[in-house]
């Protein structure tokens, strides 16, 4: 069982599983790095470790958990078990609290305390922060996990908040209305106080996965549940929040009270650019890093963005709902290449009407789901080509598809109105041999191509 506890151990695990590609050719931080990572993600290729990046000595890793293959490695399970493992980890009953490492005299309590830069020494423009998409407003930290604390209860919190470089010690910090960080900032602002936060970059993927979930407690407990033991944390150097000791890079600072500045645009999860936001301002008090750090980024508006935010936390919800109506669910997936709006459910159908009930249950599982495709167990739900084949050869559209007009969806779905009202569609793409008999489907055994092809 691989011991994954930080980014380095995860990278080793990926390399052993053929899920890492080391890129030695120099790449530019502007566009080129993201272009390469995006192409790899869309083709479901290994995650890139860019070893030579122009203008920095630090390697950059991207696309850590861009889909189910690497999620399975991160969660130490089979690909078909990811939903079940996530369902267990997201249940607060199984949460495991972080463990606070006390500083010992003369020793570091965290690897990232090896290099510390504070006050006027800090210039975040020296960090290798990519400009990802043409259309983004500039360089953004996208894979930073934000650690904050409820000023009232003291409970810790993890979230993603994109951060746009604004100056040597300042970022624009995006935060939506209904986020926990927003609640904490509101509480502080009512007393004209800033909110201390830390941003950890380069992490155990269990923490990356945890940060994408909405959870009633400290999301580090989700990461603890995944690892079966508490995540080791230590207090920040200039802020009172508990930061994972194994982070590669840590940025500490404060969200200024009552300050707002234009921030954005950035590639959004639905695959279009967003608008400028009036966002809070993050003032940096310290930047710290491990010796020979690895910077980590996440390609905005692309697979990993959708997978962490809209897939991993929601597939367990979908499973709960479809299990309620279908006798035998053999698999389900919300594909990260479809903005989290599509659900694919495989069932061993027991009744001709069951697939349509499954689709209805999927719409109830989460408002974002607008299309549910129900297939037989022989269809590979992770392979868009196999799903398209089932849609083509097993669907009579006038009988097997149904619309739900005027249903609630996501306001940012470009087909919905400004309130998010749109039409949902359910498709029964299971075979109906009772309509007309036909022979078995063609099958070839999956060949291990690495045995036959030169390494690319
Ligand atoms: C890759 C990624 C980027 C995100 N970026 C932002 C962001 O910039 N602003 C924001 O408010 N939420 C963003 N989110 C959503 C929240 O960080 C995430 O849903 C988290 O659960 C919110 O934390 P909370 O439940 O503790 O409020 C992002 C999610 C992901 C997965
Ligand atoms: Mn939270």
- How much helix, percentage-wise, in residues? 10-25%
Low confidence ranges: none
* CATH domain class of the largest domain: Mainly Beta
In the CATH classification, which architecture of the largest domain applies? Roll
What overall form do the CA principal axes indicate?
globular
- Which molecules are bound besides the chains? flavin mononucleotide, manganese (II) ion
> Can you give the mean pLDDT?
97
Structural descriptors:
Pnp Oxidase, Chain A, 12 helices, 9-stranded antiparallel sheet, binds flavin mononucleotide, 456 residues, UbiD C-terminal domain-like, 5-stranded mixed sheet, 2 domains, alpha+beta, binds manganese (II) ion, globular
Explain this structure to me?
This protein is α+β, with helices and mostly antiparallel strands and 456 residues long. It has 2 domains: 7-101 and 110-308, Roll (Pnp Oxidase, Chain A); 314-428, UbiD C-terminal domain-like (3-Layer(aba) Sandwich), CATH 3.40.1670. The protein is 24% helix and 24% strand. It has helices at 7-16, 32-42, 68-75, 82-90, 180-189, 205-211, 220-227, 303-311, 315-325, 354-365, 384-393, 397-400; strands spanning 20-23, 47-50, 60-62, 99-100, 115-118, 140-141, 145-149, 156-160, 163-167, 170-173, 195-201, 232-235, 242-244, 249-255, 261-263, 277-279, 281-289, 295-297, 329-333, 342-347, 371-375, 401-408, 421-428. β20, α10 (354-365) and β21 (371-375) form a beta-alpha-beta unit. α4 (82-90) crosses α9. It is globular. The chain starts with 6 loop residues before the first helix and ends in a 28-residue tail after the last strand. The structure holds flavin mononucleotide and manganese (II) ion. Residues 157, 180, 215, 219 line the site of manganese (II) ion (MN).
């Amino acid at each position: 069982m691989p011991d994954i506890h930080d980014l380095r151990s995860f990278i080793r695990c990926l390399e052993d599983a053929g899920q890492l590609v080391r890129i030695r050719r120099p790449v530019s931080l502007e566009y080129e790095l993201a272009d390469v990572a995006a192409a790899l993600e869309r083709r479901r290729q290994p995650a890139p470790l860019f070893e030579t990046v122009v203008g920095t000595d630090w390697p950059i890793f991207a696309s850590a958990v861009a889909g189910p293959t690497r999620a399975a490695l991160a969660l130490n399970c089979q690909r078909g078990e990811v939903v079940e493992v996530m369902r267990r980890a997201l249940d607060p009953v199984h949460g495991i609290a972080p463990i606070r490492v006390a500083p010992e005299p003369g020793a570091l309590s965290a690897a990232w305390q090896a290099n510390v830069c504070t006050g006027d020494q800090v210039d975040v423009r020296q960090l290798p922060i990519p400009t990802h998409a043409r259309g983004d407003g500039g360089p953004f930290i996208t894979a930073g996990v934000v650690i904050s604390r409820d000023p009232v209860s003291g409970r810790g919190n993890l979230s993603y908040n994109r951060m746009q470089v604004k100056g040597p010690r300042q970022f624009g910090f995006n935060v939506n209305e209904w986020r926990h960080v927003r609640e904490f900032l509101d509480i502080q602002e009512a007393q004209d106080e800033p909110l201390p936060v830390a941003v950890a970059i380069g992490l155990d993927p269990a923490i990356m996965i945890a940060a994408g979930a909405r959870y009633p407690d400290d999301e580090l407990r989700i990461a603890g549940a995944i690892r079966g033991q508490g995540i080791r944390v230590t207090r920040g150097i200039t802020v009172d929040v508990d930061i994972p000791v194994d982070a590669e890079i840590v940025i500490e600072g404060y969200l200024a009270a009552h300050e707002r500045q234009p921030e954005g645009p950035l590639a959004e999860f639905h695959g279009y650019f967003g608008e400028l936001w009036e966002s809070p301002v993050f003032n940096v008090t310290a930047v710290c890093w491990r010796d020979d750090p690895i910077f980590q980024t996440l390609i905005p508006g692309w697979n990993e963005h959708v997978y962490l935010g809209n897939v991993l936390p929601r597939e367990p919800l979908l499973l709960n709902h479809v299990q309620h109506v279908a006798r035998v669910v053999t698999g389900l997936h919300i594909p990260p290449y479809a903005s989290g709006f599509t659900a694919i459910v495989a069932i061993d159908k027991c009744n001709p009407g069951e697939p349509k009930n499954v689709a209805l249950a999927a719409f109830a599982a989460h408002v974002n789901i607008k299309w549910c495709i129900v297939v037989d167990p022989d269809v590979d739900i992770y392979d868009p080509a196999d799903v398209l084949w089932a849609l083509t050869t097993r669907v009579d559209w006038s009988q097997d598809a149904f619309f739900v007009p005027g249903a609630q969806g996501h306001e940012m779905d470009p087909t919905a109105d400004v309130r998010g009202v749109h039409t949902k569609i359910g498709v029964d793409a299971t075979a109906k041999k009772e309509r007309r008999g036909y022979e078995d489907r063609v099958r070839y055994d999956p060949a291990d191509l690495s045995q036959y092809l030169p390494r690319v």
